[in-house]
Structure formats: structure tokens, C-alpha cells
Design brief:
The chain has 236 residues and is α+β, with helices and mostly antiparallel strands. It contains 6 helices and 14 strands. Strands 8, 9, 10, 11, 12, 13 and 14 form a 7-stranded antiparallel β-sheet that branches. The relative contact order is 0.16. The protein binds thymidine-5'-phosphate (TMP) and aspartic acid.
């Protein structure tokens, strides 16, 4: 029987607890929402439940596709047992359609399809505002090894291929998303963190209506409804 022990960490959207098993931790999803590195704060009622359940559902599907993840077992609507990993300090962003910071940086309208899938990396460091880095920076700074980076890029593209198809089947365009990877005690790279409306841009494929955290970031209203709608499409 897995027992919840002391809190190890509190992030912007989740808390992490130790357990009686040294290889497992419990993640607890909050309704707290932040944007722009914490400059904007709020709550999205029910978000923790949506993100926990959606992320678990997708990670189970990805495991069946042969993608190793940290997911172990859903414990309740907000809590999940996951493998204890050390997080590779990179935000791995995958883009299928231009939006957000890419549209701004390159001056291309939101909604422009990318002719090839784009991967970007940001160094996870709140004090530096998660600066974008490339493969050379990552290896020079030893954020991970070359072998690990190869695995991460390979897995990110494989995850994208699966998710694009999956979301298309529920009439959602997967515009872009952010992944994080972790390393288990035996050195294996696994998908960690979450896949949810907090970390993905989801557009209704017919109306192009935004069904994700951009509604909160951009003060568009209808935030809770968007999360509920995504939960309904994914989990029925
Ligand atoms: P961006 O266009 O702001 O760079 O965001 C790209 C994708 O990454 C988008 O789906 C939102 C997600 N994202 C996060 O999950 N966390 C973050 O801190 C940022 C900046 C983006
Ligand atoms: N989660 C990030 C923050 O709080 C950014 C974002 O999702 O926009 O800063």
C-alpha cells in the first residue's frame, strides 16, 4: 500500500510528495494558474482534476505506443503516483502551427501551418525567465548528454505524431505543446510532468476556438468551460 509522506516540492501548478517507496512520488494537481513566469496569477476552478485525468489518460496511451513515461497509477481525481525522476532542466516545445512566442519572434500570423515540425528548447530557470537555448548550449552547459538529447528529440517527435492523430480524432488541432523529461534512478529518459490544456495549445478543428490556457493568459474568458470541453472530448 502506497503511503503519502512529506511534501518534497511545490511548483506553480502541482505539489510533489514523498512516499514509502523510494522510487515513487505522488503528484497533486492544484487549481492555481500562472502565466508569464508567475507574473500573472489566478485560479481555474476544476483545472487540477482536468489536468490530472487528461495527462494520465494520454500517458497511458503513449505507454501503449512504446513511449516510456513517469506514469504509474491514478490515485484520485487530483493525485497520481509517478516514478521519481530527476527532471532534465529543459522545456521541450513542439510546434505544428505557428502561435504564441514563435509568431511574435518570427513575425508570422498565428495559425500558419509549419512546413516541418519545429522543436525548441528552453532552459528551465525561473530566475532567467526560461531562456531559449539550442543543442550547442545544452551540451556545452551539460543540461543533459548528447545521447539523452537524441532520445529526447526522438521521443518528442514520436509523441507529437501520436498526439496530432489522436487529437484530430476528437476534432482538435494540436497547435503546439511543451514536454518535460526526467531520468529514473537507473538512468532511463522518460516523459514526465503533464500533457494538459496548461501545456498545449488546442484549437477546435472546425471553429478554431481556443480550448486551452491561452484563454487565461489573454484574458479571453470562458477558461473553465474550455478545460471542461477538452475533458469531455478526451474522457467522454
Ligand atoms: P509559447 O508560444 O509561449 O512559447 O508556448 C509554446 C507552448 O508551450 C504552448 O503550448 C504553451 C506551452 N508552454 C508551457 O507549457 N509552459 C511555459 O512556461 C511556456 C512559456 C509555454
Ligand atoms: N506556466 C508558466 C508560468 O507560470 C507560463 C505559461 O504557461 O504561460 O509562468
Amino acid at each position: 500500500m502506497l503511503e503519502k509522506k512529506e511534501q518534497l516540492y511545490e511548483g506553480k501548478a502541482k505539489k510533489v510528495f514523498a512516499t514509502n517507496d523510494p522510487d515513487l512520488v505522488i503528484v497533486s494537481y492544484k487549481d492555481d494558474a500562472t502565466a508569464f513566469n508567475g507574473a500573472k496569477k489566478g485560479t481555474i476552478a476544476g483545472k487540477g482534476v482536468v489536468n490530472n485525468r487528461m495527462s494520465n489518460f494520454l500517458m497511458e496511451k503513449l505507454e501503449k505506443e512504446g513511449i516510456p513515461t513517469h506514469y504509474v497509477k491514478e490515485l484520485s481525481e487530483r493525485e497520481t503516483a509517478v516514478k521519481k525522476v530527476s527532471i532534465v532542466p529543459l522545456e521541450v516545445i513542439v510546434r505544428n502551427i505557428a502561435a504564441g512566442s514563435l509568431s511574435k519572434r518570427l513575425g508570422i500570423p498565428e495559425g500558419t501551418p509549419m512546413k516541418r515540425t519545429v522543436i525548441e528548447y528552453c532552459y528551465k530557470c525561473d530566475a532567467l525567465d526560461d531562456p531559449m537555448v539550442n543543442e550547442y548550449h545544452i551540451l556545452a552547459m551539460e543540461y543533459c548528454t548528447e545521447e539523452e538529447l537524441k532520445t529526447i528529440a526522438y521521443l518528442a517527435l514520436k509523441i507529437n505524431a501520436f498526439l496530432v492523430k489522436y487529437f484530430a480524432s476528437i476534432n482538435v488541432e494540436l497547435v503546439d505543446f511543451k514536454l518535460e523529461f526526467g531520468k529514473t534512478r537507473d538512468g532511463k529518459i522518460v516523459l514526465a510532468d503533464e500533457i494538459s490544456p496548461d501545456t498545449c495549445r488546442f484549437w477546435d478543428a472546425t471553429t478554431h476556438e481556443k480550448l486551452d490556457k491561452d484563454r487565461f493568459r489573454r484574458d479571453m474568458g470562458g477558461v473553465e468551460d474550455a478545460y471542461r470541453e477538452m475533458m469531455k472530448r478526451v474522457l467522454g
